[in-house]
Amino acid sequence: DAKTTQPTSMDCAEGRAANLPCNHSTISGNEYVYWYRQIHSQGPQYIIHGLKNNETNEMASLIITEDRKSSTLILPHATLRDTAVYYCIVYGSSNTGKLIFGQGTTLQVKP
Amino acid sequence: NAGVTQTPKFRILKIGQSMTLQCAQDMNHNYMYWYRQDPGMGLKLIYYSVGAGITDKGEVPNGYNVSRSTTEDFPLRLELAAPSQTSVYFCASSPGGGRLTDTQYFGPGTRLTVL
Does A96 touch chain B (CB under 8 A)? Predict the structure, then answer.
């Protein structure tokens, strides 16, 4: 299974963009990059996923480098409710649904 | 849709007791999962199921058992509870079916303390 590396913690000012990086240098060609977040010990929540093109939805944008070895999750206008642990996970169909959760990045949004 | 529901929300067990954590989903998902999360750590997969009657071990299956007799329900059984099983337990489901992508939906969790 491909591994991911994320910073342990980050701060962001409310209203500013939060940019969360993730390294996944051993990702395989058919594996996707998924992002989930966990707000204060609630169940993890899906945010976004992508293969090689940049993706955007109502929650966030995902920028994947051309070599696919790293990606950045962007929350365009962070609010206090975005304070959470963010997990970057590499997933392929051979995983049979299994997600490998690392330590994630604790994002603290400050007023 | 209620999504993924879990009961109970909280439970305190004595060492050696047994209990069943309940999980149900109403999204007609094929795959279901049980994770545990210890304080300050990421989630670890205990067991998973790719359909009714089919289950398999995850990373940390020891001390647990599962069954899946219906698409909707995936109970987790703890036999002979130990303090090391003090954790938060999350159930999840996903459409599955061998798709290239598969998003998991999580329940609110059960907080279990073994004393």
Answer: yes
A contacts of B68 (beta carbons < 8 Å): none
B4 touches chain A (CB under 8 A): yes
DSSP letters spanning chain A: ----B--SEEEEETTSPEEEEEE-TT--TTPEEEEEEE-TTS--EEEEEESSS-EE-SS-EEEE-TTSSEEEEEETT--GGG-EEEEEEEE-GGGTT-------EEEEEE-
- Cα nearest neighbour of B44 on chain A: A101
> Which of A15-24, B26-35, B100-109 is least confident?
B100-109
Residue in A43, A92, A97 closest to B109 by CB:
A43
* Distance from C-alpha of B103 to C-alpha of B115, rounded to nearest angstrom: 35
Q: How far apart (Å, rounded) are the C-alpha atoms in residues B15 and A87?
A: 33
B98 or B76: whose pLDDT is higher? B76
Mean pLDDT by 10 residues, chain A (111 residues): 86 97 91 94 93 93 96 96 95 74 93 95
Cα A41–chain centre separation: 17
Question: Tell me: the pLDDT tens digits for B35-88?
Answer: 999 988 889 999 999 999 999 999 999 999 999 999 999 999 998 999 999 999
